[in-house]
Amino acid sequence: MRDNTLLEVRNLKTYFYTMDGTVLAVDGVDFVMREGQTVGLVGESGCGKSVTALSIMRLITPPGKIVGGQVIFDGEDLLKVDDEEIRRVRGNKIAMVFQDPMTSLNPVLTINRQVSEALELHLGMNKDESRKRSIELLEIVGIPEAAKRIDDYPHQFSGGMRQRVMIAMALSCNPQLLIADEPTTALDVTIQAQIIELVKRLKKELGMAVIWITHDMGVVAGMCERVIVMYAGHIAESARVSDIYADPRHPYTLGLLGSIPRLDAARKSKLTPIEGLPPDLINAPPGCPFAPRCAWVIDICHQECPRLRGVGPGHETACWANVKEGRA
Amino acid sequence: MSINEILLEVKGLKMHFPLTQGIIIQRQVGAVKAVDGLNFFIRRGETLGLVGESGCGKSTTGRAILQLYRPTAGQVLFEGQDLCKMAGERLRQMRRRMQMIFQDPYASLNPRMTVGNIIGEPMEIHNLAKGKEKQEKVQELLRVVGLNPYFSNRYPHEFSGGQRQRIGVARALAVQPEFIVCDEPISALDVSIQAQIINLLEELQAEFHLTYLFIAHDLSVVRHLSDRVAVMYLGKIVEIATRDDLYRTPLHPYIKALLSAVPIPDPTVEARRERIILVGDVPSPVNPPSGCNFHTRCPIAIPLCSEQEPAFVDKGVDHWAACHRV
Ligand SMILES: Nc1ncnc2c1ncn2[C@@H]1O[C@H](COP(=O)(O)OP(=O)(O)OP(=O)(O)O)[C@@H](O)[C@H]1O
Ligand SMILES: Nc1ncnc2c1ncn2[C@@H]1O[C@H](COP(=O)(O)OP(=O)(O)OP(=O)(O)O)[C@@H](O)[C@H]1O
Ligand code: SF4
Ligand code: SF4
Ligand SMILES: [Mg+2]
Ligand SMILES: [Mg+2]
Questions:
Q1: Which ligand lies nearest the alpha carbon of B54?
Q2: What is the pTM of this model?
Q3: Do residue A245 and residue B265 have CB atoms under 8 angstroms apart?
Q4: What is the CATH code of the structural domain delimited by B3-20+32-97+177-247?
Q5: Which of B60, B72, B195, B309 can pair with A273 through a Cys bridge, CB separation 3.0 to 4.6 Å?
């Protein structure tokens, strides 16, 4: 059977074994992505977004360990393939753009050296070919006067330009999947808008799938087809983008949407915050991780962790309560 | 005290940082024109929002007002008295009435001091309370900002980001200020915690009749909190208006672009939106562009724009903007 499934993550668990105890950073994450699809991965700091992405690429290093699950990409479980194969997949079929472009570019190498490297490594180009292609790639991502700027060093580029270089590097081998980990969080809104337009355009032209990691529910609304909301190492809710905003079924999603002021809505006199704090991932009590902050909590929530269940077409929530019916 | 009383007025404020070269003999080779001629006022009890992209001079403005930097030029009139001309004891007394809340709740609290001492210290410096009275006030302040009064013996590292920001707010309140510069007080916090601090700032304003200069780059949050809003670009204010005027009928092409770039958490709205994508990056404040300093990125610039600086004028009812084309 051949469908257009590109990535299937099954019961992924990644833990960190620290001095203070075991951090259950990703604790049973399940999702499926189709070819060419854009999926937003949202949730607040520490909920496991980056660790999920790094686990897919098998880039977890000690004290971290992928302790269970499957990452089936293009029909193959990446957690089972040998080191050589995973290196071939990385950068070639799956590429990643990291949150901080300054730390992920090497400050002592020219832009040309860094963009060319992947081309020479994965596509076997020689120096002239890779330079020519690097200039093309920089032009594609909108670096003005790319031929002149290609011998510059990273510090000569602005934050937005560095992020474009990262995207150019990620695109160099025509990946089937681009994982962008908060690529615009450190940037201004005007530069963020430039990068979002760029990725949308490239997606259309190249047909790649994108996992876009962010904590901004607004960014997701403008660019993703599906949304996965994470909380404390678990998926709280996943749905088509229109359903997440119009018909949220998890109290945490509702809380996130209610607590941010909206530019286009009537000004509320008061925001409705989510009370309390995000949980400690080391000594997680049994039951639903959101229970200490949840307004819908019922007895069972403290005893047993809810599993994802379908609540509509392509819409799943991990919650014991029936949030829709309970809503006024 | 009248409703329209102006508490703070800034006139021609400039803050230039010298750029030096040479290791042994330093000579000045230029200046970072971080703040380059600002004019605005804040009424007692209101919140003036200050927005703009990173590096446009927002924090420098806040610091120059509080005299944490001594301005290169201009006046900062607090109840009509120029802070820039004050020094010593007189300035110290005025400073008690003005406080700042910082962006980074991790870096802004001394890790070796207990929370009680952090909050109590400004009271001692300004001879407002000591001993038991001080302790009681500290506990009262902790309660006011929504923390447990028994936390006063703990150290900052024992608290989360949101709790630390509350401690920072309590410290600012300790000297009973009238005016607070809030410099991106929620940017470093988790999304689910931000609304807690926004609500707290609003409650405190109502309770203690505080006046805020609220600095942020998040236009939605600024709209939520502000009575009036000033927009900065490269060291200058390009537009000031009441909140509703600015968000409903923005005039300057820069704020129009900024507003259009803010993502809205609603896919149907997003699908229909027209974005004004600005090209390029913000130029350096060392060599700002000639004329209107926005002309290098402005979608509607005309030749005049690179030659002549547009005047900052009232285009309506207290709706000020600096642009040749509005
Ligand atoms: N090297 C590490 N050692 C110990 N714990 C770690 C390590 N890396 C991540 N963690 C923990 O794993 C959890 C998930 O981290 P992750 O980086 O995935 O969060 P995130 O959702 O990407 O957050 P952010 O929005 O801040 O980037 C966190 O609680 C974090 O403290
Ligand atoms: N002490 C200083 N010495 C030299 N230059 C400075 C100093 N402080 C700030 N600057 C420069 O002045 C300009 C304005 O900085 P400022 O911190 O006021 O910007 P901002 O609007 O607060 O930005 P952000 O949103 O990133 O906080 C920047 O170019 C900055 O590099
Ligand atoms: S399972 Fe219970 S505690 Fe968890 S989100 Fe649902 S109602 Fe709240
Ligand atoms: S003065 Fe000219 S360049 Fe400046 S904002 Fe107006 S139209 Fe644009
Ligand atoms: Mg992360
Ligand atoms: Mg600042």
A1: 2
A2: 0.89
A3: yes
A4: 3.40.50.300
A5: B195
